[in-house]
């Protein structure tokens, strides 16, 4: 912390969950006194400027129409309250995280908190308390730092002159259709409770320190994760929206591929990110824009490699829509628009494996069924290519798993508010469970032949292929949410040619 100048007050903004207090203007405090922020180099603020800055402003009211998921969020809160009947549930959204010195990462609400409220404000806390008339939900949220308080211009993290208007206690109540209370009242209200408290921990350090850990805290986290396994109609529509935007992003990348040649993978990442920000909130995860042998690195997110004609581009990317649901789609496309014979052989094998995996998605099927179906096709193909020396049934045995030298990762994961959604679910509900109507999962087999792998014929070394789609489990089978993006190699080549023939300088945005 920077040392204070004589005659100055220091307001430490780094560790607050409540509103910044107004300066002391009592008779003991000279009106000539200055006060500054801690830890930065902004000029001190005289009392006269405080008076001048907080007078003669018209009121600015943020949009307060009802949040589109408000009814769904209320249903979700009622469901989790019933499961933990008689106990108080506390769920925090989390705080800003410092990126560098006095700059923060863009805030993203905690998943469980957002699922239950739809609220994307930092520092907020949801408290669900039991009662004779049913559970009551209260959203504790910081009030606005608008022109009614000096904080609107002195608080660079929250002040509305710095970061824009936001919803406070009054506006949030109407927008999210939930009871609200000032954040600074949270500690007092929690202290007055007589019921046992269970909480989602790990998002707000000060709150975690205040609340005693409960043996059922993890049970609550697990229950919320498992509740999210089945997507409601609103969630499915949001996921489809995210996928539709992602398809546009892939088209943008194809359109920009000639410009990326000689300039590198950063161009591809940047082009897709442009679409994500134009259409949605952001990308749902770090984009993998892997060209050439970088495609054999499973989570290649550096995106610093060259883009060369004749190579393949493995693009794994997803747009996160404004309500934070994300797509997760992968295509492996030829940078020059045409697969070479060797590339096509590997690509066709992965397509066949993926189709087998998609065909296995249906209600009542084991979650592992798509993976097992895809791995069977890959092992057979690797054997036919002479890469796998053992018979497929031998290679696939649990005690062997020899095919995994070339395909290490699983074929599916749940998808939703998190790209790897519902991760806190119990194994018997997820990995070892069965698929149910309303589940959304990826199907994404791949083959990766490292450039220095001597077990692979030279013509295949450095080739990495993954094909990924987002699949909804329906009452009778499944629906591929990302089917608008071609997968068949002939269809991919035709699609790329069509995009290039209609290319425009503005990338179609």
Per CATH, the superfamily of the largest domain is Creatinase/methionine aminopeptidase superfamily
Strand content: 15-25%
Under the CATH scheme, which architecture of the largest domain would be assigned? Alpha-Beta Complex
Q: Distance N terminus to C terminus?
A: 45 Å
* H/I helix tally: 15
Low-confidence stretches: 1-22
CATH class label of the largest domain: Alpha Beta
Strand order in space, largest sheet: 9-8-7-4-10
Largest sheet: 5 strands, mixed
How many individual domains? 3
Say how many strands there are: 20
Indicate the percent of residues in helices. Answer: 25-40%
Mean pLDDT: 91
What gyration radius follows from the Cα positions, in whole Å? 27 Å
Structural class: alpha+beta
Q: What is the name of the CATH topology of the largest domain?
A: Creatine Amidinohydrolase
Shape: globular
Core attributes:
disordered N terminus; five-stranded mixed beta sheet; 15 helices; Creatine Amidinohydrolase; Creatine Amidinohydrolase, Chain A, domain 1; 3 domains; 15% strand; 509 residues; alpha+beta; three-stranded mixed beta sheet
Task: Give an account of the 3D structure.
The protein is of the alpha+beta class and 509 residues long. It folds into 3 domains: 8-53, no CATH class; 70-227, Creatinase/prolidase N-terminal domain (Creatine Amidinohydrolase, Chain A, domain 1, 3-Layer(aba) Sandwich); 233-501, Creatine Amidinohydrolase (Alpha-Beta Complex). It has helices at 47-53, 70-83, 111-117, 151-154, 160-163, 169-176, 186-191, 205-210, 217-227, 233-260, 265-279, 341-359, 369-384, 392-395, 489-501; strands at residues 8-11, 34-37, 45-46, 88-92, 98-100, 103-104, 125-129, 136-141, 179-182, 197-200, 282-283, 288-291, 312-317, 319-320, 329-334, 440-443, 446-448, 464-466, 469-473, 478-480. A 5-stranded mixed sheet has the order 9-8-7-4-10. α10 packs antiparallel against α11 and α12 (341-359) runs antiparallel to α13. The chain starts with 7 loop residues before the first strand and ends in an 8-residue tail after the last helix. Mean pLDDT is 91; it is low at 1-22.
């Amino acid at each position: 912390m920077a040392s204070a100048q004589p005659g100055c007050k220091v307001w430490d903004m780094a560790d607050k969950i409540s509103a910044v207090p107004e300066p002391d203007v009592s008779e003991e405090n000279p009106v000539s006194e200055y006060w500054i922020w801690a830890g930065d180099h902004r000029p001190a603020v005289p009392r006269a400027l405080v008076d001048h800055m907080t007078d003669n402003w018209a009121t600015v009211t943020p949009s307060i129409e009802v949040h589109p998921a408000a009814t769904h969020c209320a249903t979700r809160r009622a469901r989790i309250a019933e499961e933990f009947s008689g106990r108080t549930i506390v769920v925090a959204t989390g705080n800003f995280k410092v990126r560098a010195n006095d700059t923060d990462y863009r805030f993203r609400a905690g998943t469980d908190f957002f699922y239950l409220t739809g609220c994307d404000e930092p520092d907020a806390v949801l408290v669900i308390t039991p009662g004779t008339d049913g559970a009551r939900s209260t959203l504790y949220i910081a009030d606005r730092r608008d022109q009614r308080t000096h904080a609107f211009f002195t608080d660079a993290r929250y002040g509305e002159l710095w970061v824009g208007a936001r919803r406070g206690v009054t506006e949030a109540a109407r927008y999210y259709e939930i009871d609200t209370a000032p954040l600074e009242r949270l500690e007092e209200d929690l202290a007055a409770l007589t019921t046992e408290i269970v909480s989602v921990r790990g998002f707000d350090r000060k709150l975690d320190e205040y609340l005693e850990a409960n043996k059922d805290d993890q049970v609550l986290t697990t229950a919320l994760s498992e509740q999210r396994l089945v997507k409601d109609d609103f969630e499915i529509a949001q996921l489809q929206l995210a996928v539709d935007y992602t398809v546009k992003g892939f088209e943008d990348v194809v359109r920009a591929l000639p410009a990326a040649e000689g300039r590198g993978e950063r161009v591809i990442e940047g082009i897709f990110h442009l679409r994500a920000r134009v259409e949605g909130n952001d990308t749902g995860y770090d984009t993998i824009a892997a060209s050439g042998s970088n495609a054999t690195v499973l989570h290649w997110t550096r995106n610093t490699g060259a883009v060369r004609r004749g190579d393949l581009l493995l693009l794994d990317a997803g747009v996160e829509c404004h309500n934070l649901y994300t797509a997760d789609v992968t295509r492996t496309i030829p940078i020059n628009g045409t697969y070479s014979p060797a590339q096509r052989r590997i690509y066709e094998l992965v397509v066949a494996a993926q189709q087998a995996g998609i065909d296995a998605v249906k209600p009542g099927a084991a979650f592992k069924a798509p993976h097992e179906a895809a791995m069977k096709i890959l092992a057979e193909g690797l054997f036919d290519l002479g890469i796998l020396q053992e018979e497929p049934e031998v290679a696939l045995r649990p005690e062997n798993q020899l095919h995994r030298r070339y395909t290490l990762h699983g074929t599916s994961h749940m998808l939703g508010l998190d790209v790897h959604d519902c991760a806190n679910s119990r194994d018997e509900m997820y990995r070892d469970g069965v698929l149910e109507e309303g589940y959304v999962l990826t199907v994404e087999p791949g083959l990766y032949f490292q450039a220095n792998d001597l077990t692979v014929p030279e013509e295949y070394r450095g080739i990495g292929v993954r094909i990924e789609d987002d699949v909804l489990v329906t009452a009778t089978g499944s629906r591929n949410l990302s089917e608008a993006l071609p997968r068949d190699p002939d269809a991919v080549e035709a699609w790329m040619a069509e995009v290039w023939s209609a290319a425009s300088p503005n990338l179609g945005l």
